[in-house]
Design a protein that fits this description.
single chain, about 120 residues, mainly beta, 6-stranded mixed sheet, 4-stranded antiparallel sheet, 10 strands
Length: about 120
C-alpha cells in the first residue's frame, strides 16, 4: 500500500494561510487522495478529495471557497492550500487514499491508509 507523509503544518493567526503537502511513496494514479482533520475531542472529518485523472474535487461545506486541494502527479504529491484560516480550523490534518473509479472518488468514509498527520493551529 502507498505510504503518505504530511508536512507544512504550523501556527498562524486568524486570516492567515498555510499550504500542506502530502508525499506519497509510490505512484498514486489509481487512488483518489484526500485531506482529513481531527480536532481534540472531535471525530475525524473529511476536508477535501481529488480524482487523479479528472481532477474533480469535493470539499466539505466548512472549507469550501477557502481551501484548495491540488495534486502534482509527477511528484506524487498532494497539496492543500488553506486561506482565510479560522480558529475552528485548528486540528491535526491527515492525508489518505482510496481506490478510484473511472470518474469519481468514493465518499470520505471510504478513505484510509492514513499518514501520521501535521498540526495546524489558528489563533484568534
Amino acid at each position: 500500500a502507498v505510504q503518505l507523509v504530511e508536512s507544512g503544518g504550523g501556527s498562524v493567526q486568524t486570516g492567515g494561510s498555510l499550504r500542506l503537502s502530502c508525499a506519497a511513496s509510490a505512484d498514486t494514479a489509481n487512488y483518489c487522495l484526500g485531506w482529513f482533520r481531527q480536532a481534540p475531542g472531535k471525530e475525524r472529518e473529511g476536508v477535501a478529495t481529488i480524482h487523479p485523472r479528472t481532477r474533480s474535487t469535493v470539499y466539505s461545506n466548512s472549507v469550501k471557497d477557502r481551501f484548495t486541494i491540488s495534486q502534482d502527479n509527477a511528484k506524487n504529491t498532494l497539496y492543500l492550500q488553506m486561506n482565510s484560516l479560522k480558529p475552528e480550523d485548528t486540528a491535526m490534518y491527515y492525508c489518505a487514499a482510496a481506490f478510484r473509479s473511472m470518474r469519481s472518488c468514493p465518499p470520505f468514509e471510504r478513505f484510509g491508509n492514513w499518514g501520521q498527520g501535521t498540526q495546524v493551529t489558528v489563533s484568534s
